[in-house]
Amino acid sequence: MDWTHPDRLPEIEKQTFRIIQSYLNLAAGKAPKTSLDTEICISLQKMNELDARIFPIISPLQLDTPTQSCEILQHVMQQTFSDGKINWGRIFSIILFGCILVRKMPYTEVHVDNVAECIAAFLLDHESKWLCRHGGLVKSYFSFFLGTWGEIHECSNGW
Asked: Domains of the chain (ranges plus CATH)?
């Protein structure tokens, strides 16, 4: 897939990359550009609670390159989905983990895009059918975070 030109990607791939990229850019301190980014910002506030629990676990990691972040992320994603179960709690926990990795390194668009690519590629390679059956990432993101936030704790506790 050509992640450097999102306009050439099929719609679900564009949506998946866009939502992850927006989330990571906001987490890295970039101001929202669109109303979608603003909605993501609202969701970020809700995710701070989970962030506070996860960050201390990975803070001792030494990350020197974006490649190291992606290698760690690949391992975490493989472990998270190793039992074959998928749900929105797991997906958004992975995105949150990517956010924490991005925050551990000095901000660069290359690093954000590398982590966004890593997450999007994994989800699309392994879970694209599930994502399509459940309305895609953008639609479900807002339904999940703005409509049923309390369920994230139940979902993420099961992995």
From this structure: 10-157 (1.10.437.10)
